[in-house]
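Practice problem: predict the structure.
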Amino acid sequence: MKKGCRVKSVFVLSVFSIPVFCADIGSDTAPTRFNTKQTVNDGDRIAGFAALEGGFEIVGSTATGTFDSFFPVSSGIELNCGTLILNRDFIFGDVAEFTSLGNITGQRHTMEFSATVTLVPFGTGGAPEDCSCYLNGLIDSASECGEVWTVDWSHDDQFIITGLACECYDRLKIYSFSGTELTQRLVSTLGSTSVVYTIRWRPNSYQFAVGRPYPAGGSEFRIFEFNPELDTINEKSVINFNRSVKAVSWHPSGDYLAIAMDDSSKEIAVYSVNSGGIINVVPIAVVNLNPSNFVTRQSMDWSANGDYLVVGTDNPYYADELRVYEFDDVGETLLLNASHSFGHHVYSVSWNKTYTWLLGAGTNGGTERLFVFEHNGTAGTLTQRASSGNEVYTTPSVNAIDWSPDGLCLVIGTQYASASDRIHEFQTFSYNRSTYELKIVSSVSLADDTKDVRWSHDGKNIALGSDIQQLRVYSSGCDCADGCVVFSDLNLFTNNDVTFRNCCITFDGESLISGRGNCLTFLPTCTIRIGNGASLQLKDLTLKGLDNNNFGCLDNLGTVSFHDVHMVLDNDYSFTVGRMDVVKDLKVSGEEHTFSYRSTEESFIRERGRLIMENDTTFSYDPLSASNQLINLTAETSEIRLNGATLHATSTGLVLTKGILSVDRNSFVSSDAVVEAEAIMFGDGVDIANDLQIQELPAGNLDIVQGIALFNNVGG
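Answer:
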């Protein structure tokens, strides 16, 4: 169903802004000044008379907004890997900061940086501090025959395991993950029709534990080992509890396994497991909760140091639904250390993997249902530091929660949420340990319940299982989906020296960067790419920081045009793919550095265009093909100038025709030729129209220092 657009007219001061989809920010009839940062959700439009003095942010990589305003934008501009479509020129105000990049569809419009924009992206770290929490888009998905209730990553992130509730009786699947693609490797019914409540891989092993509801044919709990070479699983242990196994959690050492079950005599039990996957059926520690007070499904997690176990329970009448137990593997005890009462079920828990005193919890009731606590094991206390939810609307239950490996972010999965909810079925949050702020970073609406979410161990991806009958993998982190954002058909103007860092930008279509006499610097952490078949014109600027890895074309149909550009080499640079088009001056400086032409495509020095090699630089013709005529001086006024520089060619040879070779100061020709066919040739010896003019300026002198160079003009 297509959503109708409406004007945003209500602002709420809270941790979240209420998502208003397909809305106009401001109007096209009356000017409105917005002094606070505006949030652009998917489909939103910044209207013609919206003056964004407080800046704006796109909610995440899956969101697309449209810029249609006549006014400059001030303060922070955060694209957050999302997409901004320009219907008008996008002008940065005098105090604007480009703090987070994203895709920009220019439609031949201009993006103009103000003089205050000197660093892109702006910030002390070159990226927002919560950028590791970004959802950068869906990488791949796998359709299932039913709900995906539980997911987990193997220790090396090579495999994802799922537990299912399927009408086709598939109960367990294992996928390999290449970083871009899921491949199904194994399917099993596990020998019965019972669904799978919980699955968790063992640390540093391809063994995994499975918990199922009773009755499961005498196998409510099992340990298997996956063989990735044969794509098979072998059963290692089985216990018939005659009770539902709701949660399993491996101790970080891998030597112990905590199991939660519907057994009033031992709702929580810790077992030892040997390296072969054989479990000791006699638990080393047992916890007996109050009658009818059980651990909720998958609501159990060890602290990263293995000293504590947190659980969430399902009976608010007995209070203390969130409990932390201290584990002593020597004394073989599991003793209550701290607890907290919500008056609601606790549906999910997660220990912070880096900051071991922090834990997260999700509940099924109250206006706030996502919580962050600080745990003090010495004092035996849990202190609530942050929470989030709705003040007015019904908040969905938080079914799953997981901290990122760096400890800065939380990902949650919830029950189905309506459009008015601030918590959606799949969201990431950042948490500030100093200010205790819990802030939404990214959000995806699935229109169905999310059952489980798990961050990969390297922090780059998130696996999600839900009632939409799919396993999904999303990318996360400071880099966008494929590591790069795309600027297409965009004219970029600068009004000061600008440094780009911590970025990857692909220019698609026909784009322009005009420096207006300023300097453009690319740090080693920034890569500029010209897309397949695309063109980028560089105009009126000084270019610094180039190396072989951070600037170039993606294919041979790409073109870089130069118009009054000074390229300052800090390292040798190779133009390896695509075409060069010297429209006006391209001056190359950088003592003792070489500009190598290695492309297999023909490049052009246009009428009145000049390639100027400055003192002690070298232009080396070294194409990755056998052609010696890939530098085309298109007119009599096309020029290569050596100002104390060297013109070099490999044994491929080089033929220069038409145009001018001008020489100033002591300049040199160097060739790897050993026969005339490999020489540097001036003129083609066939057509007088192709004769090359050689002009020595008053202080000019040209020496052949190596190899063979031939004066091959027809006209002498």
